[in-house]
Each structure stands twice: as structure tokens, then as C-alpha cells.
Amino acid sequence: MVRAPLDAANKRPGWSGSHSFSITKVCARSEVAASFIQFLTSKDSQMVEARLDTIPSRIDAQQAIVQEFKAKNDHYMADAIATFSQAAKEDSFTPPRVAQWNEISNALWPELQKAIIGDETSQQALDNAAKKVADIMQDAADNQ
After folding, report:
1. What is the pLDDT of residues 116-144, one digit of tens each?
2. Rounded to the nearest 10 degrees, what angle do helices 43-50 and 59-71 cross at?
3. Given 33, 50, 76, 104, which is the most exposed site by the fewest CB atoms within 10 A?
């Protein structure tokens, strides 16, 4: 396993995101909800999932499961999780913090997929995506 290659700017592409949990203001039993979230995000719970070949989000669980896989001579999974862990720490970034991100993402990716599958040239797909994003941002500006 290897991390993504460096681009022309000497950076690796990366993306960071995961499920998140919240407790609403109207939650009738917020202490129970908080306890459940603590359980789900605990090292022990993440280790259970990691043993089923998922990648834990906790660094301590990543490190522990790599050692378990090495001890079992499962070098593929040990390398996969170690590589993911390194990439998550060094290469990942979060989506842009704009209110329109979901709308932009929903418009952007179908356009880029057209280039990936060969329905459009890369330039056509980028131009179409740029136009859609510009329209979304213009609508947002107009509605402020």
C-alpha cells in the first residue's frame, strides 16, 4: 500500500470526513445519548469494527489494530491501515466551509464523473462544473 502520489504542487490529494454525532436540544435524555456516543466512539468499539476490516477513526485504535494484524501475520491489513492512518494525518483536508457545499458537491461530482467515464473531455467537464458552481455561489450572493 502506498499513499496517493504527489501532484505538481508537491501535495498529495486527500479528503477527510466521517460520520458525526450530535445531541439535539430537544433530546429527552441527553445523558443517555451522550453515553451512547461515548460507547460508539470508544477504543473498544472501534477495535471491534477494525477486527471486521473497517478502518477506525481513532489513532489509538489504528495503532493497536495494526499491531494485532502484524501479530497475526496479516500484513495486507496492517499495511492498509497504517497507510490510511499516515495519509489521514498528513494528507487529508476538510471540505470548504461554505453553506452551499452540499449543493456544490451534488452539482460538481456528476460533471467530473462524465470526464472519468469518457462522456466528456476533462476540459468540458471542468468548464461545466465551474459554471454550475459559479451559478450556485451567485444565487447565494443574490439571496443575502
Report:
1. 999 999 999 999 999 999 999 999 999 98
2. 40
3. 76
The amino acid present at 13, given as its one-letter code, is: P
- For residues 85, 90, 91, 97, the Cα torsion angle rounded to the nearest 10 degrees is 100
At residue 15, the pLDDT reads 65
Is residue 18 scored above 80 in pLDDT? no
Percent of residues in the chain assigned helix, strand, coil, to nearest 5: 60, 0, 40
Predicted TM-score of the model (pTM) = 0.62
| In the chain, domain spans | 30-90, 101-142
Residues 6+ apart with CB under 8 A from 109: none
Strands (E), 54-123: none
Round to whole Å and give the CA distance between 80 and 69: 10
Q: How far apart are CA 104 and CA 96, in angstroms?
A: 10
Cell of 115: 470526464
How many other CB atoms are there within 10 angstroms of residue 135's CB atom? 11
Helix axes 75-90, 59-71, angle to 10 degrees: 160
